[in-house]
Each structure stands twice: as structure tokens, then as C-alpha cells.
Amino acid sequence: MFNYVCEWKFKKDELDVEFYLTDKNSKTMQKQINVFETLKNNPDLLKEYESLKSSMNEKSLKEHQKKKYEFYHRILGE
Q1: Please, where are the H alpha helices in 1-78?
Q2: pLDDT tens digits, 27-65
Q3: Least confident of 1-10, 16-25, 55-64
Q4: The pLDDT value given to residue 3
Q5: In what helix (H) or strand (E) does residue 18 lie, and over which residues does it extend?
Q6: Residue 23: CB partners within 8 Å, gap ≥ 6?
Q7: If we measure between CA atoms, which residue out of 76, 77, 78 comes closest to residue 36?
Q8: Nearest alpha-carbon partner for 32 in 23, 9, 47
Q9: Are 28 and 72 in contact (CB under 8 A)?
């Protein structure tokens, strides 16, 4: 199993654009799939996540990521 990630960053029409390709079998990708499936199958958790995202609108990227990953770890039982 590879742990390959390919990243692109560029500007388009004065907007910063970033995207990543990840090996579908990587541990990171499997966690993302688990988060997606958990949120898809639990409307209450999805609402909680949407509320969390909204509350982070004026926060720094670092704070947003910290809260997001705390939420992910909690719902995945890590």
C-alpha cells in the first residue's frame, strides 16, 4: 500500500485554489471515508458539524482545523 499524496496550489481569478490526490487505500483516505459515511448516516452529527463550520467563519485556519479534527476524532472514537 502506498501513502501517496499529490498536491496542487495555484491562483485562478485572484482566488487561491488547492487540491490533493490521495491513494484510496491510505490510512488518511480511509479516515476521510469513515467521517463522510458517519456524517451521511447521522443527521444529528451532520447538523453539529455544519454548526461547527459556521462558527469558524471568523476564526483562523489553524483554529478551524483544530476544531474540525477534534470533531473527527470524537465521532470516530479516537
Answers
A1: 27-40, 43-55, 61-76
A2: 888 999 999 999 999 999 999 999 999 999 989 989 999
A3: 1-10
A4: 59
A5: strand 15-22
A6: 1, 2, 3, 4, 5, 29
A7: 76
A8: 23
A9: no
Q: How confident is the model at residue 1 (pLDDT cuts 50, 70, 90)?
A: very low
For residue 5, give every residue at least 6 positions away whose Cβ sits within 8 Å of its Cβ, in sequence order, or none: 20, 21, 22, 23, 26, 28
Report the distance separating Cα 30 and Cα 34, nearest Å: 6
Contacts 24+ apart (CB under 8 A), 70-77: 72/31, 72/35, 75/35, 75/38, 75/39, 75/45, 76/31, 76/34, 76/35, 76/38
| Averaged pLDDT score across all residues of the chain | 89
The amino acid that residue 47 corresponds to is K
Of residues 34 and 8, the one with the higher pLDDT is: 34
Question: Domains of the chain: which residue ranges?
Answer: 24-76
pLDDT score recorded for residue 5 = 66
